[in-house]
Amino acid sequence: MTRGRSRDAADAPAAERRASEPASGATGAARAEPALRRLVDGPSQLLVTAELEEAACAAGLLDRDALERAFGVPAAGRGRGPTVLLELGEGRRVLLRRLRHGGLLGPLLGEVFWGTSRAETELRVTAALRAAGAPVPEPALVLTRRRLGPLHVGALGTLFEEGSLDALAFLQTDPDGQALERAAAAAGRAVRRFHDAGGSHADLQVKNLLVREEGPRAVCLVIDLDRAERRAEIGAEERMAQLMRLFRSLRKRGMVARVGPRGIARFFAGYCAGDRKLRRALRLHLPRELRRVALHSLHYQAG
User: I need a labelling partner for 192 at 20 to 30 A (CA). Which of 82, 134, 202, 281 fits?
Assistant: First the structure.
């Protein structure tokens, strides 16, 4: 096995260096960005935090059959890949997500990617956003294996959030009114912190929010940052477009009535946090987004 040197923000490409710069107006507790180690053994590569390097090697994650051992069979279908829990000792559990294409290319490309940059960029952007105070999972590793030439398969791991459900699963538990409103407000605060930290999500939808109840309060994380970016600033137009994409996902899955007007109001109250200027700026873009909702509704009915 040969080990590559650690690639941190100082020796990453320029686009990745920009992603690691602090965002203005970020809220929440900032954290140190983890050092990442690149390990190579033949066709297998592992990009892993320094803290987990020894445990990942001991778990055989550089073995050629590591993916098959973890997931059993190749990923099928399209969309979000299957997940497994990986024990890495000392009570640490990593949620490993098999990488595969979604959308129209899903059936054609499946789990095969050109190179390793897409998965590694997701890990680095997650680390940079978390360091800036965004409520995102703690990054752990990217495991990839070369299949043929530049074609790779792989998986991405973040530390497992115990006791959490994605927001769709949470809504399907039919929470009472108070629990739902606490979760809605927590989701609004989480997405606001994500945007304030410079986070731009490519697919902000109900399954990409992770909710956990902690006694009388709720906490929320923004997850699945495939193709997400970190920018210097996220403007009101883009913020509103992502918020309404989240709303459309509720509508598509028949969950708008369950969230209800009070839940939606609590979400936006959590997001705006009394910032009247931001609320007014968002409302300017509401008519356009409502037209999008109407168009998408026609598509849902046709489908």
Answer: 82
